[in-house]
Structure formats: C-alpha cells, structure tokens
Amino acid sequence: MSAAGKGGRVARVKSRYLAGGAAGAALLALATTYTAGWEGTSYKAYLDTIAQPPVWTICQGDTYGVKPGMVETKAGCEVRLRRQILEHEARMLSCAPELLKVPGETYVAINDWAYNVGTGAACRSSLIRKVKAGDLRGACNELSRWVFAGGKIVKGLANRRVNGLPGLISERALCLRGLG
C-alpha cells in the first residue's frame, strides 16, 4: 500500500490487513463488518448534511466519485468499503506508523474512527498524538471527545464513540478491549 510521504515522495506503507496472512484477513473482516454496522448501507446516493460542507455519499459512507442519482449494488458497496478501509489505513499508517504495533481491536477501532471523521482530522488529533506517545489507553479515551457536529452533541456519534447499541460495541469500548 502506498501513500504520499515527505516531500511528495511515495512511501511504502505496510498494511496489517493485507500483510498479516490469516490474522490480517480476520482483522480486515472485523474492520469491514464493524464499519458497515455503524455506517449503515444506502444503495442510493444521498446528501450527507452533517458533513460540512455537505457531501454526496453512498453505500457505507463512501464519498469517492459519488454523484446525485447514483445507485450501487450490494457487491459494489462491498468493493467500495474494502477499498476505502484500505485507503484510510494507508493514510493513517503514513501519519502514525506506531499504529502497526497496537492490538488488533484497538487498531480496528481507531481506523473506524478515522474512516468516520476523515484521516486529515484524525492525523492532526490529540488522539493520534497519544498513540505516538505510547499512551494507548489515553488515545482510546479520546474517542469520547469526538461526538460533536456543528458544535452540538450528535446522538449517533455518541452511540458510535461511547455508548454503543445492541449488537454494536462502541469504538471506545472496542479500543479499550483490545488493550486487555
């Protein structure tokens, strides 16, 4: 997996999802199932108005190349989600290679959060600064701060980050569970 490195050069970034054999495949399966559970699925493009500025979205939160009126199949959504998860992972590993060493469930939780908030915001965050400093418990606890949109607490974000839902563990709880 490649991602832009310093000076615009392309740096090789190892993927835990692709390079880990059976363990990597299991981690990727967990990541796709987990992210799909929180994102939900829309086979028809919709305008995500929580995003600022609003952005056309399809499948499980994918915004790449989405236009009004666009329709996708189940198989197409699965391909889109896998591609997006791998691309987000590469961007996260470029800004925080320390993520390669975090436990699997913690890795999935942090990457899911980055998928949801965007890797630019994630890479500039205090959460990632804590990962880089080796404070993984502190990083997991930072997830509870990411529940706002437009200056207001959004119930869906609070559920995803902290509260969880029946059958869906919160990112914070999954992150901490990975730490044992």
Structural topology:
Blueprint lengths: L1 E3 L5 E3 L3 H4 L1 H19 L2 E7 L6 E5 L14 H22 L8 H14 L1 H5 L2 H7 L3 H7 L5 E2 L2 E2 L1 H9 L7 H8 L2
Antiparallel strand pairs: 1-2, 3-4, 5-6
List keywords for this structure.
disordered N terminus, alpha+beta, 180 residues, 53% helix, two-stranded antiparallel ribbon
Explain the overall architecture.
The chain has 180 residues and is an alpha+beta fold. Helix 2 crosses helix 4 (104-117), helix 4 (104-117) runs antiparallel to helix 9 and helix 7 packs antiparallel against helix 9 (171-178). The protein has a two-stranded antiparallel ribbon. Strands 3-4 form a two-stranded antiparallel ribbon. The chain has helices spanning 16-19, 21-39, 74-95, 104-117, 119-123, 126-132, 136-142, 155-163, 171-178; strands at residues 2-4, 10-12, 42-48, 55-59, 148-149, 152-153. 53% of the residues lie in helices and 12% in strands. The longest helix has 22 residues, at 74-95. The chain is built from 9 helices and 6 strands, in the order E-E-H-H-E-E-H-H-H-H-H-E-E-H-H.
Concise summary:
The chain has 180 residues and is an alpha+beta fold. The chain has helices at 16-19, 21-39, 74-95, 104-117, 119-123, 126-132, 136-142, 155-163, 171-178; strands at 2-4, 10-12, 42-48, 55-59, 148-149, 152-153.
